[in-house]
Amino acid sequence: MKKIMIHDMPKHLGETVKLGAWLANKRSSGKIAFLQLRDGTGFVQGVVVKAEVPEELFAIAKSMTQETSMYIIGEVTKDERSSFGYELQVKEIEVIHEAVDFPITPKEHGTEFLMDNRHLWLRSRKQHAIMKIRNEVIRATYEFFNDNGFAKVDPPILTGSAPEGTSELFQTKYFDEDAYLSQSGQLYMEAAAMALGKVFSFGPTFRAEKSKTRRHLIEFWMIEPEMAFVEFEENLEVQEQFVSYVVQSVLKNCKLELERLERDVTKLEHIQAPFPRISYDDAIIFLNENGFDDIKWGDDFGSPHETAIAEHYEKPVFITHYPIGIKPFYMQPHPDREDVVLCADLIAPEGYGEIIGGSERVHDYDLLKQRLDEHGLDQKAYAWYLELRKQGSVPHSGFGLGLERTVAWISGAEHVREAIPFPRLLNRLYP
Amino acid sequence: MKKIMIHDMPKHLGETVKLGAWLANKRSSGKIAFLQLRDGTGFVQGVVVKAEVPEELFAIAKSMTQETSMYIIGEVTKDERSSFGYELQVKEIEVIHEAVDFPITPKEHGTEFLMDNRHLWLRSRKQHAIMKIRNEVIRATYEFFNDNGFAKVDPPILTGSAPEGTSELFQTKYFDEDAYLSQSGQLYMEAAAMALGKVFSFGPTFRAEKSKTRRHLIEFWMIEPEMAFVEFEENLEVQEQFVSYVVQSVLKNCKLELERLERDVTKLEHIQAPFPRISYDDAIIFLNENGFDDIKWGDDFGSPHETAIAEHYEKPVFITHYPIGIKPFYMQPHPDREDVVLCADLIAPEGYGEIIGGSERVHDYDLLKQRLDEHGLDQKAYAWYLELRKQGSVPHSGFGLGLERTVAWISGAEHVREAIPFPRLLNRLYP
Ligand SMILES: [Mg+2]
Ligand SMILES: [Mg+2]
């Protein structure tokens, strides 16, 4: 008998099939046992009726411990009461390995305990659902960029110079040289966009930042598209289309997972392009008029400011045209105002904060040189990057989206640490 | 007029369109100029006929330097002589930026020079083609694993322990602790497979190895699938289906690129599952009978051995059941022979070497503990990994495919450094 996986059961209605599975939970009476089975692709109930199976099998089913692994044979039937819609009428069980004292029981556990047991915690219903949503966000990201003519380009992780200072960078010996772990592949992606037109990266990023908030990870994944011949406004359009595509893909393909997480999907259904835009100028006025007297023009936003602005909208909101003084050197100045740049941050709803930072890039050689000087940056470290502006420079734009914040938002997870399989935090390098 | 990209030109036959493009090359006479244009999505010829355009435009076309960027307007017409099949009858050119002394001219350049200029070298026809093939390998990989029910799981890059010794590991300070850059996410993927059934990773990997061969990179990308309830033989079937899928996808979707690289596609067309298998035992006999007296049972293969074996087959070949002494601790011993393990390496044709290493994993707690001891490894560092064998352990298998070797093979590139956008080599951390 060929073994199948739980997510394929609907195709085998009425058939007798074999599954490899673990026992997630069970309940039983003297006459019947209900086994909550999981195999990684889904959860399904196995029904063992005492009167219909050998005595020994019913005894095994009744006494089986949480997370025991097995091959299980049964008939696929409909089950209208469950969200999955199917169940398994069990005929045979072959226990592979009996689990003993699985540490994560259905009761409440402390965060540090769960994090120490992350390798096992991933098996629980909620964590499993978040990981499936993460997978769908990744899948939809590739689909979106492939369908829109982008090539995936992988910028290097190890770089030889630490242009913006080393305080938040991880450093390592690279044979006889020093190397640093990348905080962003953007500069490399700009070079790649001049070769391949529209490109995107999707890889790990490292910030040795001593932040301990629910939005920060030391190691996280970032998607960084970069587009030649694309200016500020078109850049925003790509971003809102991309984010809409990802959210709608999750709604379509992760129904069971969103339900398991008790996610209010009405808050996701209307996430469709276009997204609202507010200028930085207006955002400051809005904040000052709404009780925030701790911020003035020229200051960067903190989490409470971003949240207050985001709460005013039902969709993610672009905050555009930040002051030049609080943004990196590579952002293109506004053509009519030298005090702001052609950038936007995209703030997620429901307090999840900034999920995208993007901008048009400086494409003029002299201006870029001047901006490097103004930031006190070493031109030698940027020699190859500057040279791009000598060899057929073109207007170009790009952005970076943080995967874990996006997954946390869509899943409704409280903390980004639940949005990555093995989180790296300030005091967390295990497992 | 909406701008389009070169790869979309076939949809606009007979229309007047606008492109953003760079001048890759040109030739001209007194009456006509042929501009070889590129925009990252493709290459196309722009035709400027002196008698049909303003005098000024013809002068611009004739004098334009290599890599000058422009917006260019023209009519899309058929061109049966080119592989692309279309060309542009130029009507207007707006130069964006005039390139001066682009360093990479159509003449020959030395390797170090090209590598120093990798940020510009990527624009050349051959490098562009390899990057497009790399992109297609990536795209097809996601498609294959998504279609086959695998979830993408990202194992951590920074890990707190260096279980197999630190000699080939990059080390960094992680606040008050020491951390190491991952050489493989496999152990984490095993934990993930117990939670999600079938999983794959696809991320950067680091080996601080002082190798300087055409097959080695310091930083490279690896695909590591791991499958619960999957044993040795089924693991090989997934591998041969995956590799076949990727090769056939490139043949289908990168015709122009393979042609530009002058790749002999007849060597790729028959790359279809199943692949041949030869046992390690038989491989040693084969080598000894074919003039290799430098290898005996128990030794690992070097590149010349792998190449000699591979040359005997037209497809990639699995070498199976290596001696237990030359393979890692986590490989499952053969049920009937204690001297070999249930593993296989997949050797690519045409001298490209090993592209996959894989095995069934030890799933018995006591045996794994014993194997750790035999390898002199610290059980504390493996505590969470060992614990997987206490909590519903199941037979499971997985493998790792190296992206760059696979891309080099399919592209016919001479060296893996051309199969990654910004290679990291022994003496190469720039650009
Ligand atoms: Mg911000
Ligand atoms: Mg080998």
Automatic annotation (TrEMBL), chains A, B:
The keyword Cell membrane does not apply. Its main location: cytoplasm. It is an enzyme of class 6 (ligase). The keyword Ligase applies. Its EC number is 6.1.1.22. Belongs to the class-II aminoacyl-tRNA synthetase family. Homodimer. Keywords: Aminoacyl-tRNA synthetase, ATP-binding, Cytoplasm, Ligase, Nucleotide-binding, Protein biosynthesis. PROSITE patterns: AA_TRNA_LIGASE_II. One of its GO terms (molecular function) is asparagine-tRNA ligase activity. Residues 131-431 form the Aminoacyl-transfer RNA synthetases class-II family profile domain. It catalyses: tRNA(Asn) + L-asparagine + ATP = L-asparaginyl-tRNA(Asn) + AMP + diphosphate + H(+). This is Asparagine--tRNA ligase. Pfam families: tRNA-synt_2 (PF00152), tRNA_anti-codon (PF01336). It comes from the Bacteria. It is found in: Cytoplasm.
